[in-house]
Write a structure and sequence with these properties.
about 375 residues; Proliferating Cell Nuclear Antigen; DNA Polymerase III, Chain A, domain 2; elongated; alpha+beta; 9-stranded antiparallel β-sheet; homodimer; 26 strands; 3 domains
């Protein structure tokens, strides 16, 4: 096997497919990039058994072949080659020689047969999604994905394509995040994408262009024309989230997001990572009081604040509320309360682009 | 005790004196900032028993007094106050109330009697040093300070004021760094400043203005007009560094610093933190070869390179050589070799502003 190609293109491809490579594995091949040189094309793949990234770049292929090279070492070598073109040749004993100008590197590769096969996904039902929309919906819901595996289906986000709408839902048992966007596809489908996959794909694809999604049973692929990403899907039933959304409200607060957020931020100073204390939140007589007492000290922020409906006093986890408010991408929001033990609902003042729900905590 | 002052000035002063505050201590007062309000001035100090920072800011003092407040909490509170002015009042029970606008914080302070006294240093021999020179000399020698306490005097840098010259020297047993700068003071003196102090003072003082140094026996103060920094000095005899500098050379290499550095950088790829292997360096027949063989693989960089004197082949620690080269602030350097077991000397091609010395390692 022997090929030459542009150093920058190869380095960029290596850096990107390395996102799917495991840094430490008992199976050495999984720490490497699969390099396949055939028909004037060079294909590079990283695969961690659940998630893979593949891309093709132009190369001058003298001898076709396949090899697996340690991801970190190979990427760094290519980066450090001082010439525009880098040449890679592999001998019968899998010794790889990477050269350019005055520099020569030699490392031992792994036969491509030891690299596990990446599953393929073929489906006639294709979803085309602008990357900007995809990234926006993920960025504003992923914080609510569960980090523990008590309910595996909650370790990813539900993607629901129905009635000309894409709805993305994340939930972790204490809060819930919903984002909605009009999207016409001629069929209905839904699946749960692992949070790790969502983070990697949105980071790799950015906001330019469109991605093509194929999903079949437990597998999904994303393709932006340059990179193909494969991932397993999470199997099982997601929360019936529609049932959890409160229909009524006893108290309605319309407020600048920034105002509520800065009040919470100031008062949260008394909460440390090791000491979780709830925020005491009171709406009464045209006043909003945000307060927190902990062993560190006391903090309070009191502001004039008209609201509609009953007075209310409740407690909530400051971090959950701050996450939800930060994810609101509008200035004016409405916050709906239905008594001190009913979920708090945060929505835009106009429209229904997002809905965040935070469970209150019982306070004395 | 009660005072009001500008929020930004107070926040800035807190952030800076906090550099001398210990984050975790069995003596609670050491986790705090000493605040002293007297005669229309507010003084703030942090002190970790070896090092202190003190500054004064303007304040409107209603009731004079002293208190120690937790550094992290107090700094964050002041930062989060939404108004231009912040008011701090302390009651008889050392409860501190920090307020501004809608926000009110209450934390428990510590009586100032529990704060250890910061030593004073008084000397008629004053050294005035431009901060830019001070920072430059520290930045380019501090990498060679010893990190282990086998020889405590090597855990700081020697400052030697002699013959119209300031010489700064750091050494760790494997390499040595010298920086020289003309500086006229009417007396001779030398002392060893702990590396931590040098880092903190240069970071705090930056490159503007001048600092005034008083050093007496084991104590030193630095004053830039806004901040006063106290530190202990390291006691003991520093290496007689003049004796360690090779007088002769068998091989002389004049080279662009960048060229040598990039060759070393490329070849060092085969060295990881866990596996220390020496670089093999050869000058022979107008050629410079930099090579490294490790269990990860082989790397070599071979370039045309004229030199003066004998051919040479030796080994050295790549990290030590790279540190020294990075610290050279000129493009053209000369490297002097005196056989494979004699220290390698790196100097500017012109002048004697700096001298770096790296010990070679024995290779097969």
């Amino acid at each position: 096997m022997k090929f030459s190609c542009n150093k920058e293109s190869l380095a960029q491809a290596c850096v990107n497919v390395s996102r799917a490579v495991i840094s430490k594995s008992t199976l050495g091949a999984l720490e490497g990039i699969l390099i396949q040189a055939h028909d004037g094309k060079l294909s590079l793949s990283g695969y961690d058994l659940e998630f893979s990234i593949t891309t093709c770049i132009d190369a001058q292929i003298e001898v076709p072949g396949e090899i697996v090279l340690n991801s970190r070492l190979f990427t760094d070598m290519v980066k450090k080659i001082p010439t525009e073109t880098v040449t890679v040749s592999i001998d019968d004993k899998h010794l790889a020689n990477v050269t350019g100008g005055s520099v020569s590197y030699t490392i031992l590769g792994t036969p491509s047969e030891e690299f596990p096969e990446i599953p393929t996904v073929e489906s006639d039902d294709i979803i085309r999604l602008p990357n900007a929309v995809f990234k926006d919906m993920v960025d504003h819901t992923i914080f609510a994905v569960s980090l523990n595996d008590v309910r595996p289906t909650h370790m990813g986000s539900l993607f629901e394509f129905k009635n000309g709408l894409l709805t993305v839902v994340s939930v972790d048992g204490y809060r819930l995040a919903i984002r909605r966007e009009p999207l016409n596809i001629p069929f209905e489908t839904s699946f749960i994408i692992p949070a790790k996959t969502l983070k990697e794909v949105t980071a790799l694809f950015g906001e330019e262009g469109t991605c093509e999604i194929h999903a079949v049973k437990r597998r999904i692929t994303f393709d932006n024309g340059t990179y193909t990403v494969y991932s397993r899907l999470i199997d099982g039933d997601f929360l019936e989230y529609e049932d959890t959304l409160p229909k009524n409200e006893k108290t309605l607060l319309k407020i600048e997001k920034r105002e509520l957020l800065s009040g919470l931020d100031r008062v949260s100073l008394m909460i440390s990572d090791r000491m979780k204390y709830p925020i005491h939140f009171t709406l009464n007589e045209m006043t909003m009081e945000i307060r927190c007492d902990t062993p560190l000290g006391k903090a309070s922020d009191v502001n004039y604040c008209p609201f509609e409906g009953e007075s209310i006093r409740l407690g909530f986890n400051s971090g959950y509320m701050i996450d939800a408010l930060r994810a609101c991408d509008c200035d004016k929001i409405k916050v709906r309360f239905n008594g001190p033990l009913s979920p708090i609902v945060i929505e835009p003042e106009e429209g229904n682009k997002f809905l965040y729900l935070v469970l209150p905590v019982r306070i004395k």
